[in-house]
Amino acid sequence: MEFQEKRAVVAPENELIRARLEKLERLRARGTEPYPHRFDRTHTAKQAIAQFETAEQKDGAEARVEAVSAAGRIVAFRGMGKATFCDLLDGSGRLQVMFRQNVLGEAYEMLRDLDLGDWLGVDGPIFRTRAGEITLEVHHLTLLCKSIRPLPEKWHGLTDTEARYRQRYLDLIANDEARRIAVLRSNIVRSMRRFMDARGFMEVETPVLVPVAAGGMAHPFSTHYSALNRDLFLRIATELYLKRLIVGGLEKVYEIGKAFRNEGVDLHHNPEYTMMESYESFVDYTDVMRMVEELVSTVAIDVLGAAVVNFGGQEIDFTPPWPRLSLREEIKKRSGIDFLQHPDIESLKSAMHEVGIDVRQQASWGGLLDKLISSKVEPTLTQPCFLLDYPVEMSPLAKRRKDDDRLVERFEGFVAGMELCNAFSELNDPVDQRRRFEEQEALRSVFKDEEKDRLDEDFLIAIEHGMPPTGGLGIGVDRLTMLLSGHRNIREVVLFPQLRSR
């Protein structure tokens, strides 16, 4: 019997669903269970192909691997008289399988009621066809799941970007790149954990629902806890809870987890994102810098095999050491503005206006300087580097420099014009910390639309018990995945990104 490649274009979707339901009933009428409980698979597609290639090196053209059980989703049908070929897709890749009428007998008739998207288990030997394709010859087939809804017309290259993000499962079926990124991201996180564990850090978990959304400059999401009749927030950072653990004597801690910021969506921002934050006793930001460049280069080599990657057609070299650049000097070089010479809002606003920066959306001094950095400095930072020593107004949780108390020991890591990480020598003077939080609260009441940190009284009480010198780090897992996968859009590396309502 003849089979043609099947595509969901011949009828409206509801008609195709009806036709599949009819096939489902025919299968059941013949005694086929379309939704069995399990299947004993011996090989993934990749393993089956690899085993055959090993046998071929030994036996040459006579190579054959017996008794292979594989399973996957049908993603292609090709009919050739009394033989039918299909491609099965599993988590490791594709495997071509061949059905022969003279081998399967009556079971061959089941193929009439199979469709693209169905899951199938197959048993039989592996050989290479005359066309050169490694193929499993099916001696026994088992329907594992009858799909009711057809794959999209362009399942073989789903191009509707919005559909890809909304229905990521279809993207994973259709696009090899989507599967590659999903696997890469998992490997990146695993490699980060290995690196941190090897350095003696302890992985911990801190609350997601918090009474005060502190530890960063961001607008939080709020919720209500009915049992306690209490308003809570989704955390914007893990910082203040991790530093409580430092106070408690856990000297090296880290957490990989979600944080949430009630902000817009763009190429680099998703309102829920994954970060790794770490805190280490008795070190400062120079030690953390060395750890970051070692971490990123190690992860790149671990998951990609090299510290040099291609990003947007440009080679990015993560090999340490990364350049250490003074924030003040970089701003002066790129704009001619020395922010320490413009300590008030109007002076800085005027200087920025003169170099062509639109300052209408920024009201506070810190907000203006952040705009200056993002406009003039960040786009120039292509190769991995660290920007050092931010003004105290922008860094309420960082320790002041010993030689200039207008600046703090803070760095941000940049790659390809994108912020990758943020780190401090952590402020452990409880009196100064309380003063800075109070200043942030005052600014927040004046500049209501700008992102400011919040006073967390319980954290202040914690560090009043004594926190040793500490180096802290926050590094974006999503952005690291973007850099190592070669994608500029954060939604490509988040399996289920936030999207606007339909």
CATH fold-level topology of the largest domain: BirA Bifunctional Protein, domain 2
Secondary structure class reads alpha+beta
The first-to-last residue Cα distance is 44 Å
Q: How would the global form be characterised?
A: elongated
| Arithmetic mean of pLDDT | 92
CATH class of the largest domain: Alpha Beta
Let me know the CATH homologous superfamily of the largest domain: Bira Bifunctional Protein, Domain 2
Radius of gyration (Å): 29 Å
How much of the sequence is in beta strands? 25-35%
* Major sheet characteristics: 8 strands, mixed
Uncertain residue segments: 1-11
Overall number of strands: 19
Count of alpha/pi helices? 14
Helix content: 25-40%
Oligomer state of the chains in this structure? single chain
Strand order of the largest sheet: 7-11-12-19-18-17-16-15
Architecture blueprint of SSEs:
Elements: H1 13-29, H2 45-59, E1 65-80, E2 83-90, E3 93-100, H3 101-104, E4 119-128, E5 134-137, E6 140-145, H4 161-166, H5 168-174, H6 176-198, E7 202-203, E8 209-210, E9 222-225, E10 230-234, H7 239-247, E11 252-260, E12 272-281, H8 285-304, E13 308-311, E14 314-317, E15 324-326, H9 327-335, H10 345-354, H11 365-377, E16 385-391, E17 407-415, E18 418-425, H12 430-446, H13 457-464, E19 470-476, H14 477-485
Parallel strand pairs: 3-5, 7-11, 15-16
Antiparallel strand pairs: 1-2, 1-4, 2-3, 4-5, 4-6, 8-10, 9-10, 11-12, 12-19, 13-14, 16-17, 17-18, 18-19
